[in-house]
Backbone:
């Protein structure tokens, strides 16, 4: 049966996962909490994205493309929209990581969520990203999503290693999809995770 049949849509509508706040510890011993985002996190999340963008390597959107207030507005809407997943990793009152899954609204593609993730500089390589991604994929599975899709720059070896360890597979490469600095181009790697396939 093609994706998006009646049974599949019903399972998406019925599945509910309660994301409870959970205390965690990084591999180097720092405490942090994983919890569902609240609308009041929007400004902190916009700040996190701005900081990661300013690193100039990992994200498609240029630092100048969005003002923090307008991004905070859109994030607040995303958090308020039923059906999406927005999780935050918090440590000492600061947002240090985020994973977001936006579920497609189209009747023929509402079996798919699109994922983005970022962890603040200084909190990477200590297991936090893997933990928030794992939680988001558990949510996707419980919610009845068949597929989670993402895209990543092919030179982001750390992110690709983490995605592959969690079961994402490479689906294709869009060549010269984005313009980089000084007349260069950047390819985009498309990856997908399928709920029926366990890593
Ligand atoms: C990608 C990201 C979400 C991963 O989260 P993280 O918390 O750093 O990841 P973890 O600590 O859970 O795991 C990282 C793993 O990658 C490994 N790794 C680090 N650099 C690597 C590299 N160049 N090649 C392969 N593996 C690498 C680490 O050793 C670690 O593996 P281990 O657990 O076996 O030691 C995070 O680094 C990040 O936000 N980066 C900047 C923004 C970004 O790239 N977002 C994704 C855009 S698509």
Residues:
């Amino acid at each position: 049966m093609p994706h998006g049949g009646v049974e599949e849509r019903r399972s998406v509508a019925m599945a509910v996962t309660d994301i409870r706040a959970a205390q965690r510890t990084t591999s180097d011993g720092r405490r942090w909490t994983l919890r569902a985002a609240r609308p009041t996190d929007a400004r902190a999340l916009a700040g996190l994205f701005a900081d990661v963008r300013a690193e100039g390597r990992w994200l498609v959107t240029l630092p100048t493309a969005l003002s923090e207030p307008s991004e905070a507005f859109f994030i607040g809407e995303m958090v308020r929209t039923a059906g999406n997943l927005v999780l935050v990793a918090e440590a000492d009152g600061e947002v240090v990581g985020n994973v977001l899954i936006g579920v497609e609204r189209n009747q023929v593609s509402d079996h798919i969520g699109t994922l983005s993730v970022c962890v603040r500089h200084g909190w990477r390589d200590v297991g936090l990203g893997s933990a928030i991604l794992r939680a988001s994929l558990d949510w996707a599975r419980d919610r009845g999503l068949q597929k989670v899709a993402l895209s990543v720059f092919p030179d982001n070896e750390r992110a690709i290693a983490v995605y592959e360890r969690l079961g994402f597979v490479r689906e294709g490469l869009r060549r010269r999809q984005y313009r980089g600095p000084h007349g260069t181009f950047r390819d985009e790697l498309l990856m997908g995770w399928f709920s029926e396939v366990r890593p």
Remarks:
- The chain is about 30% helix and 30% strand.
- The pocket of coenzyme A is lined by residues 52, 58, 117-119, 124-130, 152, 156-159, 161-162 (CB under 6 Å).
- Residues 21-194 form a domain with the Aminopeptidase fold (CATH 3.40.630.30).
